[in-house]
Amino acid sequence: MPSMLPVLGLSTPCGAFSCLKQGASSPEVEYLQRQLQVAGFNPGHVDGLFGPKTKAAVMAFQRARGLEVDGIAGPRLWAALDVQRGSGQRPVLKRGLSEPVVEVIQKLLAAHGFDPGTKDGIFGPKTERAVLAFQRAMGLEADGVVGPKTWSALSGMVLPQRSVA
């Protein structure tokens, strides 16, 4: 049975997101680092490790956006980053996409024990099958699309199981 444990790192649930802070190590930290880069803030090497440079980039972003400057990637920082990207939320991912964020999803699936195949940023049939299996295991609607609920579950939050009638 696949592991339902959260991804390793110093993170706690923050609504639909994880709060990430210095010392965390996960694919979600890598996603944070990429989003900081897109927003024009340098987190250092994009490696999934929340080190001093990532913390400095988080603090600079918080300062620039008028947020509380605590160096923690919490819900307000995530919302500001996502609005910066123009979507207002994390991207919806589905089969056929080829983007760096797909590699983050592939790494998160693997961390939960679901094999997405090669972690190459291409949302192909094997990644879709892994998403479907993960969604079924978590009691989510199994549609193969990574939307807000699947993002939350992959980020280490435990969602309530739906009852099967």
TrEMBL record:
Gene3D superfamilies: PGBD-like superfamily/PGBD. It comes from the Bacteria. This is Peptidoglycan-binding protein. It holds the Pfam family PG_binding_1. It comes from Hyalangium rubrum. The lineage of its organism: Bacteria, Pseudomonadati, Myxococcota, Myxococcia, Myxococcales. Residues 26-81, 100-154 form the Peptidoglycan binding-like domain. InterPro entries: Peptidoglycan-bd-like, PGBD-like_sf, PGBDSf.
